[in-house]
Amino acid sequence: MRFRDRAILVTGASRGIGAAIAKAFAAEGGTVIVNYRQDAEAAEGIAARCRAAGGEALAIAADVTSEEAVAAMAERIGEEVGRLDVVVNNAFAPYRFDPDRRARFPDVPWSAYERQFEGAVRATYHVCRAMLPLLGRSSSASIVNLASDLVTRPSIPYHDYTTAKAALVGFSRNLAAELGPRGIRVNCVAPGLVSPTEASAATKEEVREMLIAQTPLRRLATPEDVAGPVLFLAGPDGAFVTGQVLHVDGGLVMA
Amino acid sequence: MTTFAGHLPGLDREDVSWRRVSYESWGETAEIALPDLTEAQARALCRHVRENARARLKRMDVARIVAAIDGASERLLDRTHPLRREAERMLPVVTGYDRETVRLGLTSYLKTFQRPQLLRFLAEDFADPGMLDGFRPARKGGFVRASGPDLLLHVWAGNVPALSLWSLVCGLLVKAGTVGKLASAEPLTAGWFAGLVAEIDPEIGECLAIVWWKGGEEAGEAAFLAEADTVMAYGGNATLAALRAKIPVTTRFLPHGHRIGFGLVAREALDSRRAMALARLAAKDVVRYEQQGCYSPQMIFVERGGGVAPGEFARYLAHELAALAHRHPRRTLSSGEGASVAAWRGAQEMRATGDAAVLLGAPEDPFSVVHLDAATPLAPTGLNRTLALVSVDSLDEVPALVAPHRAFLQTAAIAAAPAALFRLAESLASVGVSRLAAFGAMASPEPGWHHDGRFSLLDLVTMTEIDQAAEAAAEGFAPYVD
């Protein structure tokens, strides 16, 4: 029970990777704030599964790209949970990983980059700022941001998405440098293609097989694969690790 | 919500008694209502199908039937079509196979029932498929016509999704009035397909019924068995023997029994690069439908002397099985299935104590691979991802090792250079192997293949010939005779 009496915020936790991370924290006794944007029913379902797994859970709706919504969420966490030890920035702007129909560079408008920056960097920026006061009171505070192995190896050039994730890696390292002296650690987990998730549903078999063929462990990541390394970086086992990017892609990227 | 199975032209749902069966897998449940016809209803349905087939189906051009089957396949290939969505949702719950297996399997299977592939089916068996539509000149002289049975009964078995479509389509292509008996373990796809055909071409829909009866239950079964002109049946030898005993001697009986698949890997396929790719393909063949289909490998013979030794290849294969289980989790095994896996593992462990075997995969893992270092005759495994890998000095030893199972042989996968492929094909053919496949494609036979070495369409038809002499004689009676 590595996270008993610890409170963990997971953004975008109503489905996919976020949901798996939330459940994994709950299974270690944590109190999980299941943040979601729209699907209240799904989020409540994940909260229920967190409780069933042995943790506490609270579902809070908030669009993490909105400063006001995030501030309101921080206030609610302060009132209802009273503490915050871990923030997992998992939410990202809706994106369809469809290698066959991805926009090629001349067709990617600047607005697409902006949208991904909003979803990746701006959301993380707002969440980190709003949660810092709560995190500052914890003796073992940690932030884990979800990046992508595409930053190091753009197997499919999703220009806007990957550029935003690259910026998130830079953002995280800077934050790690600044917050280290305050005892707050900041790391990234960089998964490869994760399946099954809604976002990856359009990725065709051929591409999956191409990635698998080049992956030493011979399969794609599952949402549950991502959860373990997130817990490692967030918890006591990762107490002396900060500013790192941990690739979770079966060895596709070795860095 | 209850899903009603089957397709019963001429019968009202209200007049039929339905047997409700619950299915449960992956944390979900489904209730399916299976039609339980009285003997009178069964006879009336057979008459309806037979009469409509005579009046309508037999008078249609094959091209029209091809168009209807193509249309039904097209709809089920469309992932946004409501029935396709229903199939992707229900079949994992009913059959226990994981969603991805069902989704990929449906697409790969339905692809083979599109118009170009159907034309290939026809061309494979008929030099001139026009003989299904009328008398055509025969090469030997005279004329010839092929006619399917008025009433063809399919008795399906097993839980492989959509497997019933294979024989269903063959029957329709030869214009057979068709009654199909659903397998309780996959009672959905044939009814859906029949419904789509009926929607596209209502006249064909009247010549086609999808029914169910409880295996061995006399009332409904006897009526269907008595009415059919031809019975095509699937299942184990005991089931087939019981069925054969109940069928009138004048009825054609076409049984398709259980099979044991196996593979052969030549040393030239075992270099540092290709061995791993091959292990993945072989693992896919094992995982696809949990070795329940007749095509899947249960034993793979691996030649010594390649860059990768057979024992190492076994380890690669075991890891690929472990990796594939993340995407395609093994379905929950029944207690009987679990017991046969455990019994097989137990037998391998006995062998392993003597150093002659290495068992890979723990009891809790969803797969087991045993590597047997001595040439071992083909033997069935415990199924559900249990595989034996046998070292041999030369693949030429394999035909003798599989020959004792002649009656159960069908598909063998082979990875070897062309000269070895053809040399081994000759000797494997002589011991009863009827299909040599590539690894990774064992469960996807090509359109127009010869199931169990037989002619899928030709076996169903009767040829009617007009002798050359009869034609010549007729000339003598013509009004224009000089």
TrEMBL record, chain A:
The keyword Glycosyltransferase does not apply. It comes from Enterovirga rhinocerotis. InterPro entries: NAD(P)-bd_dom_sf (IPR036291), Sc_DH/Rdtase_CS (IPR020904), SDR_fam (IPR002347). Belongs to the short-chain dehydrogenases/reductases (SDR) family. It comes from the Bacteria. One of its GO terms (molecular function) is oxidoreductase activity. This is 3-oxoacyl-[acyl-carrier protein] reductase. Keywords: Oxidoreductase.
TrEMBL record, chain B:
One of its GO terms (biological process) is bioluminescence. It is an enzyme of class 1 (oxidoreductase). The keyword NADP applies. Keywords: NADP, Oxidoreductase. GO terms for molecular function: acyl-CoA dehydrogenase activity; long-chain-fatty-acyl-CoA reductase activity. Its EC number is 1.2.1.50. It catalyses: a long-chain fatty aldehyde + NADP(+) + CoA = a long-chain fatty acyl-CoA + NADPH + H(+). The keyword Oxidoreductase applies. Signal peptide: none annotated. Transmembrane segments: none annotated. Belongs to the LuxC family. This is Acyl-CoA reductase. It comes from Enterovirga rhinocerotis. The lineage of its organism: Bacteria, Pseudomonadati, Pseudomonadota, Alphaproteobacteria, Hyphomicrobiales.
